[in-house]
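About this split. The held-out portion is used to measure sequence recovery: a designer receives only the structure tokens and must propose an amino acid at every position. Recovery is the fraction of positions where the proposal matches the reference. Here is one held-out target exactly as it appears in the evaluation file.
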């Protein structure tokens, strides 16, 4: 806003105290003049800003023109241009610069508009990437216990002066190919709980293969005032409709609708994770996790289930480690072990002539004469496919209000579209199932959830031999699986193979997977219907019919049995069941279980 500076009472300027282009503060003396009464006076700036020109602009008595300060850039509550206290005006932090540097809402909107224009012109979206356990696994010689092998081309070693600790970094399998392919479609950013110095070193490692990251698109924990959580507003102040996130943790993000959660990547064995925060991510509530562990103890593991068991055990070990404190050396024995490892690695480096200098990056190289660990981790490929789908759907639409978050939600809804899930023995009967994380997860993947065994049920997820689990073993066309099937479907963004998670065991305590001829009944619904149903389920109204839950309507063949007692109904089912003898054995062995679990 331009402001004309005038001498209301007339007079002549005797001397100017500022020049054109100089910033001025409100009330600052910018000139001295002599009024009509021949008195010397001072001319003060009517507002904070800068002098645009010395001289009139055609208005009467105008002697100069200034531009009022909009306080676009602020530091610690003060305008960086004029120094005025603007803490009460409100501002938006921009983490790419400095935690105390903020911009006005108007400037934040201009930044977002420029970003959107740049992305649209190149037909790209923005992708924010986490580092630790997402793209890489890193540790230091202070906390490193063991590693499968250092004989690998994707392992790098460096230091971050003045810290003498050695950092070991293992790139996730297929990382470079993942980033190169996505760079054509996405503008890549780094947002990590590590320091900016650490993040810049990882970016340097990646850029040594292909230049992909620039310093202006790296955010570390020292760039933010909040060191316990991440917020997209730090990077994209006003609008995140063109932004997606890839991270192994969702609990640290305030913008979870943008998030694609990837399975955490681990390579080194250490006393704790590097750059970790207090508390661990919880994918399911404690009750559900306990049920999974109990069920897996008596279930014959398939190849995929072995992975789940290993994950659960590692999670429990991690909990125990974190519970003992976050110090780098937990006890005297581990301290000696760490020192031993450190000394061993230092001597090995000296022997090979690979002594690491301050700030230098050393790449390990595989030796064909030594064994190399073959990794099967392919989760980056899974995420890449999802990102390709979102990008394709975004730019194939001409809608002005298109939103990458909504497109991502619809891709996610397609994972279990057409499935109707019945949970049994997974969570206590005294809690509302709609509030359970497992229920919410199934809804978010496009499945419908039922409280009763209806004709629509396609999957029964169980943990113990309950009445519903036993019924599933004798109902054609119903999958009987453990909770690992749901979790694996989430990880892979596609429906997992039910046969790998079938509830079976050597002693047949759970009976058979299915009985009779199986007829596929999984028919995907229109995505618009699924999207609406999932929103109503996750954000239910007062009307229970809008819960997104399959109504508890008894199957046609059971009409007429509802008035009969529970004991009589069981007897009729057992008489008509070919597995009468096995059912009797189950009831005797697990008598009373049904009263404790749903």
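Reference sequence for scoring:
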């Amino acid at each position: 806003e331009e402001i004309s500076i005038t001498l209301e009472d007339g007079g002549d300027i005797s001397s100017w105290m500022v020049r054109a282009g100089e910033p001025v503060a409100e009330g600052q003396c910018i000139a001295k003049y002599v009024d009509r009464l021949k008195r010397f006076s001072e001319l003060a700036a009517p507002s904070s800003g800068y002098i645009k020109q010395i001289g009139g602009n055609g208005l009467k008595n105008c002697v100069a023109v200034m531009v009022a300060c909009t306080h676009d850039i602020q530091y610690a509550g003060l305008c960086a241009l004029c120094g005025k206290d603007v803490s009460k005006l409100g501002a938006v932090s921009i983490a790419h610069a400095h935690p105390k540097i903020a911009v006005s809402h108007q400037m934040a909107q201009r930044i977002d508009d420029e970003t959107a224009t740049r992305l649209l012109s190149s037909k790209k979206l923005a992708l924010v990437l986490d580092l630790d356990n997402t793209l890489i696994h890193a540790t230091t010689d202070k906390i490193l216990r063991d590693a499968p092998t250092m004989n690998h081309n994707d392992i790098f070693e460096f230091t971050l002066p003045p810290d003498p600790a050695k950092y070991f970094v293992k790139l996730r399998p297929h990382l470079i190919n993942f980033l190169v392919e996505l760079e054509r479609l996405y503008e890549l950013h780094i947002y990590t709980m590590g320091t900016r110095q650490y993040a810049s070193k990882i970016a340097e490692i990646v850029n040594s293969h292909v230049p992909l990251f620039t310093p202006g698109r790296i955010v570390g924990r020292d760039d933010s005032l909040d060191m316990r959580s991440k917020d997209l507003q730090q990077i994209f102040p006003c609008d995140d409709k063109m932004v997606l996130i890839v991270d192994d943790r969702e609990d640290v993000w305030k913008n979870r609708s943008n998030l694609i959660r990837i399975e955490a990547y681990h390579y080194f064995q250490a006393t704790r994770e590097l750059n970790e925060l207090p508390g661990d991510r919880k994918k399911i509530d404690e009750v559900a996790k306990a049920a999974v562990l109990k069920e897996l103890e008596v279930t014959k593991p398939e190849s995929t289930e072995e992975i789940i068991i290993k994950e659960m055990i590692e999670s429990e070990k991690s909990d125990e480690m974190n519970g003992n404190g976050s110090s780098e050396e937990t006890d005297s024995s581990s301290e000696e072990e760490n020192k031993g490892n450190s000394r061993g690695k230092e001597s090995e480096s000296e022997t090979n002539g690979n002594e690491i200098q301050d700030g230098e990056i050393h790449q390990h190289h595989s030796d064909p004469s030594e064994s190399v660990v073959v990794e099967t981790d392919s989760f980056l490929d899974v995420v890449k496919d999802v990102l390709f789908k979102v990008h394709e759907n975004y730019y194939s639409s001409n809608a002005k209000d298109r939103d990458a978050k909504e497109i991502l939600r619809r891709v996610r809804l397609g994972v279990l579209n057409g499935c109707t899930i019945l949970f049994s023995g997974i969570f206590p009967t005294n809690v509302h199932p709609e509030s359970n994380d497992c229920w919410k997860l199934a809804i978010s993947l496009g499945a419908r959830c039922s409280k009763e065994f209806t004709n629509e049920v396609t999957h029964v997820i169980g943990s113990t031999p309950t009445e519903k689990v036993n019924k599933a073993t004798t109902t054609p066309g119903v999958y009987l699986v453990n909770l690992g099937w749901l979790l694996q479907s989430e990880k892979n963004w596609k429906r997992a193979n039910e046969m790998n998670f079938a509830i079976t065991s050597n002693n047949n305590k759970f009976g058979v997977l299915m009985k009779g001829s199986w007829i596929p009944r999984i028919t995907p619904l229109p995505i618009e219907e699924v999207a609406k149903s999932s929103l109503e389920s996750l954000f239910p109204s007062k009307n229970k019919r809008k819960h997104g839950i399959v109504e508890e309507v008894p199957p046609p063949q059971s009409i007429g049995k509802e008035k009969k007692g529970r004991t009589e109904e069981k007897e009729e089912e057992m008489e008509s069941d070919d597995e009468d003898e096995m059912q009797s054995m189950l009831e005797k062995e697990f008598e009373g279980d049904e009263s404790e679990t749903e």
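Annotator remark: The CA atoms of residues 485 and 501 lie 6 Å apart.
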